[in-house]
């Protein structure tokens, strides 16, 4: 074995342990959100901080620099591993260890503070924690930016290659068509009826499990629990999902479940050869979101699949108001005035993201103070959506992201929608009889196409390259906007 091969092997053995410890950290986060007793929050913050200190030390270990200098890449996989380890090493080496540990500790504690503040609509109780989180993330961004844009440095963590300028230009191109479509839909003479009735928790969870199975979720490598803000956690052979139940709104549970199954199936679909290596996770949060959104929307909310879902609901719940499959499809996709991003329809969802993008850029730049955030949120929401926020839980306290320091994350949601639009166009070209399969509740051809063309690659390619290779063209917003206009003009008979 020559010295370059030996260096690569030693590097990957070391990295395997680091990746395994990262999975342990993720399991602590999952437990905090699902089963941890409330009184354990302070101790859990210390535990997360301690583990982050260990991880940061490994990610900045001086031996990594030597191995990276000596290692030889003899395959595309090896080159990709070296690319990702080099990126992580450079990024983490600029962040002082005490700062990394403090961010982990403070964000863990802030998540509990946010949950309590949201429950009691007490913005003032959350502001000190949020101020500290922003202070720490700005300090981290300053280390990473090296004199450049702070927000770009944060975006890079979630979507390598994206910048605030490029995302802002994309939003500027999308906004006019979205606003015009929303206006036409809300002013349409035909308006679908909302779902009415009460849908018990047990029944909703039975249907949710059926949906997860229909989309290929592997119960031998996963489980489903409850969380205030649904999420997916893990990779490899342990990928868990969460959902939530509102007894007057079964679609909240059903489509939260399908959304998180999309995330989970991405991780489960990655080649097992990449397990516990840098390639054993999604290429970016934008690509990850493309999978959750295409599962939830282009597949799960399609006319074909909602016909199958209606039958499953009829078997579980005798009493609800949709009289036929067409009416049920319209109800599932009803555009309505609402506060909550995660419950928003496809037409308005990206407008929620654009608002958060602008607000968090202002927070990170210092143009917006934390104490002015609630007023800024409420003013922007009124301007964008036309009505007044009724309570903080429906306003600035609705999302967990800022509590846990995920600044730069929100724009990847719309980027994921854009990618999903491109993938949907390519997938339907490749599978011309897809709707006939979906009408039987059979998603296997679609999910297999996504697994083979996107999911199996893990982190092998850069984010935009993943989508370009799958679609045969560079990703752009056109397919998404065309899909939305065709779908909703059809539903609303425009």
UniProtKB/TrEMBL annotation:
GO terms of molecular function: metal ion binding; metallocarboxypeptidase activity
Protein name stated in the entry: Metal-dependent carboxypeptidase
Gene Ontology BP, a term: proteolysis
Physiological role: Broad specificity carboxypetidase that releases amino acids sequentially from the C-terminus, including neutral, aromatic, polar and basic residues.
UniProt family annotation: Belongs to the peptidase M32 family.
E.C. designation(s): 3.4.17.19
Active site: 260
Gene3D superfamilies: 1.10.1370.30
């Amino acid at each position: 074995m020559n010295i370059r091969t030996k260096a690569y092997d030693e590097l990957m053995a070391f990295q395997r342990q680091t990746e395994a410890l990262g999975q342990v950290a993720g399991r602590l986060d999952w437990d905090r959100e699902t089963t941890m007793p409330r009184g354990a929050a302070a101790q859990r913050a210390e535990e997360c901080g301690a583990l982050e200190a260990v991880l940061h030390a490994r990610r900045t270990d001086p031996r990594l620099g030597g191995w990276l200098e000596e290692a030889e890449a003899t395959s595309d996989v090896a080159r990709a591993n070296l690319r990702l380890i080099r990126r992580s090493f450079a990024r983490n080496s600029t962040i002082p260890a005490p700062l990394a540990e403090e961010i982990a500790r403070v964000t863990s504690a802030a998540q509990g503070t946010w949950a309590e503040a949201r429950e009691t609509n007490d913005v003032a109780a959350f502001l000190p924690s949020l101020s500290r989180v922003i202070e720490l993330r700005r300090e981290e961004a300053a280390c990473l930016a090296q004199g450049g844009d702070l927000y770009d440095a944060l975006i890079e963590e979630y979507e390598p290659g994206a910048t605030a300028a490029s995302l802002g230009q994309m939003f500027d191109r999308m906004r006019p068509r979205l606003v015009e479509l929303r206006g036409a839909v809300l002013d349409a003479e035909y308006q679908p009826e909302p779902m009415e009735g009460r849908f018990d928790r047990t029944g909703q969870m039975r249907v949710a499990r059926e949906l997860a199975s229909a989309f290929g979720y592997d119960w031998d490598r996963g489980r489903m629990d409850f969380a205030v803000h649904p999420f997916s956690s893990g990779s490899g052979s342990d990928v868990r999902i969460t959902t939530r139940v509102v007894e007057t709104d079964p679609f909240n549970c059903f489509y939260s479940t399908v959304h998180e199954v999309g995330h989970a199936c991405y991780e489960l679909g990655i080649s097992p050869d990449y397990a516990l290596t840098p390639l054993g996770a999604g290429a970016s949060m934008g690509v990850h979101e493309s999978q959750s959104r295409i599962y939830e929307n282009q597949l799960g909310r399609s006319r074909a699949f909602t016909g199958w879902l209606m039958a499953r609901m009829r078997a579980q719940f005798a009493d609800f108001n949709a009289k036929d499959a067409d009416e049920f499809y319209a109800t599932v996709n009803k555009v309505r005035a609402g506060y909550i991003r995660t419950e928003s329809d496809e037409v308005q969802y990206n407008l929620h993201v654009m608002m958060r993008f602008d607000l968090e850029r202002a927070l990170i730049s210092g143009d917006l103070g934390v104490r002015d955030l609630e007023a800024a949120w409420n003013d922007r929401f009124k301007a964008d959506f036309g009505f007044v926020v009724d309570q903080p839980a429906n306003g600035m306290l609705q999302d967990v992201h800022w509590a846990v320091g995920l600044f730069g994350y929100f724009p990847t949601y719309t980027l994921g929608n854009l990618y999903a639009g491109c993938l949907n166009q390519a997938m339907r070209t490749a599978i011309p009889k897809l709707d006939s399969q979906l009408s039987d509740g059979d998603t296997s051809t679609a999910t297999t196409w996504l697994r083979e063309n996107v999911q199996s690659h893990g982190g092998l390619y850069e984010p935009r390259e993943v989508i370009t290779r799958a679609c045969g063209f560079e990703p752009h917003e056109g397919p998404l906007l065309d899909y939305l206009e065709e779908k909703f003009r059809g539903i609303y008979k425009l």
